[in-house]
Write a structure and sequence with these properties.
Blueprint lengths: L1 H22 L11 E2 L3 E4 L7 E6 L2 E2 L1 H19 L5 H5 L7 E5 L6 E3 L6 E5 L8 H10 L3 E3 L1
Parallel strand pairs: 3-5, 5-7
Antiparallel strand pairs: 1-4, 2-3, 6-7, 6-8
Length: 147
């Protein structure tokens, strides 16, 4: 009888072990690895043929990148309604306006000297930066930043 009980106990332990392995941890589905995403041209909702190119040297999954690009477009579109004509000027299709995103930038945003129509924005700051201020610096091609 004891041998039979030991056998049953061992069988139950083996079954539970197999069940645990089957239920978790061993996911064979491929996980997308973050990689450098291609520059993305997005159309804006104001002006005539207004566009922005969004780029980054950081690595993101395609889903993360699409969300970041959507956030940039939403932020720009929402500030364009402030009535400042510069938005249409900066983002006109022939101006090649670019937003460069980065995870580890020093400033929340920065317009650098001699990088006409380009702004660098920390990814965590997309929804909080003042695009009206950024546009003023981009239009004047004047270096500036915000902590």
């Amino acid at each position: 009888m004891k041998t039979r009980n030991k056998f049953i106990a061992m069988a139950l332990i083996a079954i539970m072990g197999i069940a645990l392995i089957g239920c978790g941890g061993n996911d064979d589905s491929p996980q997308e690895k973050p990689k450098k995403q291609p520059d993305t041209l997005r159309t804006l909702t104001f002006g005539t043929d207004c566009k922005v190119t969004i780029s980054s040297d950081d690595k993101f999954t395609a889903s993360e990148w699409n969300t970041l690009c959507d956030n940039v477009v939403t932020a720009i579109n929402s500030k364009s309604s402030t009535g400042i004509e510069s938005f249409s000027t900066i983002f006109a299709s022939n101006q090649n306006a670019t937003v460069v995103l980065g995870n580890n930038f020093t400033h929340n945003w920065e317009v650098k000297s001699s990088e006409f129509r380009t702004v660098y924005i920390k990814t965590t700051s997309i929804n909080t930066v003042n695009f009206t201020e950024i546009i003023e610096y981009m239009e004047a091609d004047y270096p500036g930043h915000n902590e």
